[in-house]
């Protein structure tokens, strides 16, 4: 009960912040919440199942382009376009899971990296539709969801909060359900789980599809809320970001992805005032984290303060 | 021009690509083979080699041959030393855990890349080749009075490009000799075969690892110095060699040096030929998909070899 209280409390806090934050941070927080949903999807696979993917940008971009191309070329309205994005994320992640889960360890990382790279290049190759690196803007008129203008900052914040809340509660419920327990067991000792009679492949497959669909949902929402879809979101960088956020916040904790995203977002935001080489911060953070705090921020909290933190 | 001269030209360009690629990929393969570490920062060591070569050439401006010769020696040593330092400060402390080292080398990639951006700037800068004679290549054509020797416009290469191919062959032979014929090579192969047993026999495994990591990075830097008079030095130039090296190492079989060289020649040549006839983006898509599928269905590589 305490656990649900904590997570519901975070959502309530974010809702309260909607009324008090100044415009700049209000906009930032909306962005952080969407990106945190992406990170939570990543966390289900990396943090709980122990599968390190270097290709999640593929799912994020699948969602974004599933939505964006639908709006741009098929004239879909936002609701079916969002569903199209969600579907694209699910289909692409199921396809990659069927292939990549035949491997493990380092090979899994490289396979996901390669397919994501192929996906990125495909976006560039079909530049006639996707406008490649330059990307395309989704017009305000195309962003009216049931009469609500999603380009309005207030509505955008609330929409981001709804997405974030759904992903948070879904993650929390999943990892506390028997299904999530099996995932953690797979992370800890795959052989033993197999010996106990669980279908390891099916569980991994389901985890990867849920993770990819969540990433796709975040991608579709990002495109719709901020009105832009571009090839950058499919690049390797966007596969590394969720890894970084999750590592920073704490892999295998439900709140970790949000904390990590928030922290990193403001770190880069502040440092970009000093230098253009802001990825340096990301690099240094990655190295220091792997060296000194592989558990991340929430991991440390769990270790020192609250052992039952999910 | 007909198809024939085009093919000759593409093959020559491809051979230069293959030569440089073989050096870079052998460095990556060595590190993976001996240390079981996937070095994502490998492309950045390549980039550093090119940038340092530019800096040295700048320092002794006026004598391009001297500057280049100096760069050829100094750049790999500097980059190698940097890599050894990175190994001892970071990788060693991670106990060479495969997954954590990948994350750490990704961090290293961004650090090197962004520091270069801050120090060297976003411009692409050329290095003058030490010698650069144009060599035209003759071609046979059936004219009105039988076969005749012609010199098609645009069909030719430079002495420097041929020298790059030659140098790569010499260096690869040297690496082979080092691995197969010297004591230090024996120690490296022993460590590769069985780390625990090597430790038990008193081999200083951690020093071997540092050496191998430095050697791998040095080879990448050497390849970059060779290519920088043809391409230009740029802070983002590491991405393509990294991707291509990955492709080569995986297709050649992880950790197998002969397989790596064969795959480098194959990929380098076909890359040259394919990009003449098809869109380079399409060629890259097919190549990355091939790597993914090879890893899924034939993890030991296309050329047999021992499994990873």
Automatic annotation (TrEMBL), chain A:
It is a multi-pass membrane protein. It comes from Roseovarius azorensis. This is Amino acid/amide ABC transporter membrane protein 2, HAAT family. The keyword Transmembrane applies. One of its GO terms (molecular function) is branched-chain amino acid transmembrane transporter activity. GO terms for cellular component: plasma membrane. It comes from the Bacteria. Keywords: Cell membrane, Membrane, Transmembrane, Transmembrane helix. It is found in: Cell membrane. Pfam families: BPD_transp_2. The keyword Transmembrane helix applies. The chain crosses the membrane at residues 46-67, 79-100, 106-126, 157-175, 205-231, 243-268, 274-294.
UniProtKB/TrEMBL annotation, chain B:
One of its GO terms (molecular function) is transmembrane transporter activity. GO terms for cellular component: plasma membrane. Keywords: Amino-acid transport, Cell membrane, Membrane, Transmembrane, Transmembrane helix, Transport. It is a multi-pass membrane protein. It is found in: Cell membrane. InterPro entries: ABC_transp_permease, BCAA_transport_permease. GO terms for biological process: amino acid transport. CDD domains: TM_PBP1_LivH_like (cd06582). Pfam families: BPD_transp_2. The chain crosses the membrane at residues 6-33, 45-63, 69-90, 102-121, 160-179, 208-230, 242-269, 276-297. Belongs to the binding-protein-dependent transport system permease family. LivHM subfamily. PANTHER family: AMINO ACID ABC TRANSPORTER PERMEASE PROTEIN, BRANCHED-CHAIN AMINO ACID TRANSPORT SYSTEM PERMEASE PROTEIN LIVH. This is Amino acid/amide ABC transporter membrane protein 1, HAAT family. It comes from Roseovarius azorensis.
């Amino acid at each position: 009960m305490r656990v649900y209280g904590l997570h519901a409390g975070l959502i309530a806090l974010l809702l309260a912040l909607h009324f008090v934050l100044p415009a700049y941070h209000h906009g930032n927080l909306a962005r952080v919440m969407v990106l945190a949903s992406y990170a939570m999807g990543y966390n289900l696979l990396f943090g709980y199942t122990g599968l390190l993917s270097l290709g999640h940008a593929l799912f994020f971009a699948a969602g974004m382009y599933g939505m964006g191309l639908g709006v741009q070329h098929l004239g879909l309205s936002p609701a079916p376009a969002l569903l199209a994005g969600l579907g694209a994320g699910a289909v692409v992640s199921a396809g990659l899971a069927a292939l990549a889960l035949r491997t493990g360890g380092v090979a899994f990382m490289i396979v996901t990296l390669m397919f994501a790279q192929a996906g990125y290049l495909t976006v560039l190759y079909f530049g006639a539709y996707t406008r490649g690196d330059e990307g395309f803007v989704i017009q305000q008129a195309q962003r009216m969801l049931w009469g609500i203008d999603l380009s309005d900052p207030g509505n955008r914040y609330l929409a981001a909060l709804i997405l974030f809340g759904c992903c948070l509660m879904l993650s929390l419920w999943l990892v506390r359900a028997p299904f999530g327990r099996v995932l953690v067991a797979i992370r800890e000792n795959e052989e033993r789980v197999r010996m106990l009679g669980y279908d390891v492949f099916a569980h991994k497959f389901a985890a990867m599809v849920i993770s990819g669909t969540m990433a796709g949902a975040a991608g579709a929402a990002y495109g719709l809320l901020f009105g832009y879809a571009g090839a950058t979101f499919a690049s390797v960088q966007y596969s590394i970001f969720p890894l970084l956020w999750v590592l920073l916040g704490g892999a295998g904790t439900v709140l970790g992805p949000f904390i990590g995203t928030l922290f990193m977002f403001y770190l880069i935001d502040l440092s970009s005032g000093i230098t253009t080489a802001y990825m340096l911060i990301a690099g240094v953070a990655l190295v220091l984290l792997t060296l000194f705090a592989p558990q991340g921020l929430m991991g440390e909290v769990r270790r020192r303060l609250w052992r039952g933190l999910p | 021009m007909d198809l024939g001269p085009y093919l000759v030209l593409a093959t020559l360009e491809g051979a230069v690509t293959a030569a440089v690629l073989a050096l870079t990929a052998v460095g990556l393969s060595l590190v993976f083979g001996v240390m079981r570490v996937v070095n994502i920062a490998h492309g950045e060591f390549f980039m550093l080699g090119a940038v340092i070569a530019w800096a040295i050439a700048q320092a002794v401006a006026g004598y391009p041959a001297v500057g280049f010769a100096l760069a050829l020696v100094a750049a790999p040593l500097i980059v190698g030393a940097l890599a050894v330092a990175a190994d001892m400060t970071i990788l060693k402390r991670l106990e060479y855990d495969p997954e954590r080292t990948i994350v750490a080398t990704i961090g290293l990639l961004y650090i090197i890349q962004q520091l270069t951006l801050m120090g060297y700037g976003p411009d692409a800068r050329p290095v003058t080749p030490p010698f650069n004679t144009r060599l035209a290549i003759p071609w046979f054509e059936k004219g009105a009075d039988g076969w005749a020797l012609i010199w098609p416009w645009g069909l030719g290469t430079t002495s420097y490009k041929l020298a790059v191919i030659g140098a790569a062959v010499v260096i690869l032979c040297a690496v082979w000799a080092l691995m197969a014929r010297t004591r230090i090579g024996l120690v490296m192969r022993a460590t590769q075969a069985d780390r625990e047993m090597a430790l038990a026999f008193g081999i200083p495994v951690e020093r071997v690892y540092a050496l191998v990591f430095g050697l791998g990075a040095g080879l990448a830097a050497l390849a970059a110095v060779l290519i920088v008079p043809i391409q230009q030095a740029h802070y983002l130039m590491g991405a393509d060699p990294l991707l291509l090296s990955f492709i080569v190492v995986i297709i050649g079989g992880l950790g197998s040096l002969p397989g790596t060289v064969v795959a480098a020649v194959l990929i380098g040549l076909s890359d040259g030929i394919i990009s003449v006839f098809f869109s380079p983006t399409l060629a890259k898509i097919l190549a990355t998909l091939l790597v993914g599928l090879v890893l899924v269905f034939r993890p030991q590589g296309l050329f047999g070899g021992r499994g990873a």
